[in-house]
Amino acid sequence: MSECGCYIPPFDYQDFVSTHIGVDKTNGRYGDVSLERCVHCGTKWLRYLVEYEAFTASGRWFRAPISDEVLATLTPEQAVPFLERQPWHFSGGSYYQSRGQRSSGPIHADL
Question: What's residue 5's pLDDT?
Answer without folding.
Answer: 93
